Amino acid sequence: MTGGAVHPPRTMTGRMDCPAATPSTVQDLLGREPVGLDPRATAHRQELLDRLP
């Protein structure tokens, strides 16, 4: 089929008729500054080590 409408890609909520809303920043989504990898790894060190084989 040719000549159809071209639709831009959208993030979907799982229902094909509803586009998802995407916040612009971590602060908009969580209401706080983002946490980097080092502080997160330090805070969850033992939990991360327990998951190793």
- Based on CA atoms alone, the radius of gyration comes out at 20 Å
Major sheet: none
Report mean pLDDT, rounded to a whole number. 77
- Strand fraction: under 5%
- Shape type: elongated
Counting DSSP H or I runs of 4 or more residues, the number of helices is 3
What is the strand tally?
0
Show unreliable segments: none
Percent in helix: 25-40%
Describe this protein's structure.
- By secondary structure, the protein is mainly alpha-helical.
- 34% of the residues lie in helices and 0% in strands.
- It contains 3 helices and no strands.
- It has helices at residues 26-30, 37-43, 45-50.
- 0% of the residues are buried.
SSE layout and pairing:
Blueprint: H1 26-30, H2 37-43, H3 45-50
Outline of this structure?
This protein has 53 residues and is an all-alpha fold.
Write out key terms for the chains shown:
3 helices; 53 residues
